[in-house]
Amino acid sequence: MKKKILRNEPLLAWILITILSVIWGSSFVLIKKGLDVFSPAQVGAARMAFAFLIMLPFAITNLKKLPARKWLIIILVGLIGNLIPAYLFALAETELKSSLTGILNALTPIFTLIISVSFFRHKASGLQIFGLLLAFSGSLGLSFINDNGNLGNMNYYVWLVVIATLLYAVSVNLIKSFFSGTGSVILTSFAMFSIGPISIAYLFSTDFFHRISYSTGAFQSLLYIMILGVIGTAFALILYNKLIKISTTVFASSVTYLIPFVAVIWGLIDGENLFFLHYVGMIIVIAGIYIISKEER
Q1: Which of the 8 DSSP states describes residue 217?
Q2: Are 111 and 168 in contact (CB under 8 A)?
Q3: Could you read off the pLDDT of 175-225 as tens digits, one per residue?
Q4: Per-domain residue ranges of the chain
Q5: Which end of the chain is flanked by fewer CB atoms within 10 Å, N or C?
């Protein structure tokens, strides 16, 4: 029985990566739609609040399964792997195209590798280091492309995405190191349980509900955020945590080099313009990530 499961795991990993790339690749345009009415902080908090509410029954029924000594790690995973990046991505999209944000999200495996090497005794090959430098150079180039498709001044909002991907990478390594034996549904519910009340409390402290009542298009924007929270966060995290457990951390995070293609497609459908240099930068980033993940597998 065990041998059969092991034989199926590589196929399952690829299936999960494909599903996740579609879900997360679509999340950037959903964030953009949420920002039509709500502030970046409200979009991030509402996204986590919806995810929290959908996962709450699982968390409550399994609270006794989590040792008290691991709650601090769960809170860290909730904050740095979910709440803070949700805000940073929304803030970044106030000045960046959703498709460009999706491209930059592919940096996650770079930081995953760096953290694995620095803190978790992972050994990097020379080819992986080359891939890291290649991908980073592509992202750096993207930060200098202006609205006309030419090179100009650096857009510092790019670095909000860089910080978010760094936090994602830390979270990936924490999950792999401390929760390899925890079910993916339970782990996701605990992470949401640790940040959900904070998110809801924040929303009540703002004009969030006033905007729902009086802003044009509020319910439509709220629907996009709900989809983002329920499907793009809660459901996707269940799949992702499962992927992390049946594969390596770098392979799991390599889902992000498929996400840009989905994000770009949605961006084009939504009327965004990408220029030649954007595609060059995307190819360079994805090539670097591919080299890193191929070496890991």
Answers
A1: T
A2: yes
A3: 878 887 777 788 888 999 999 999 999 999 999 999 999 999 999 999 999
A4: 27-296
A5: N
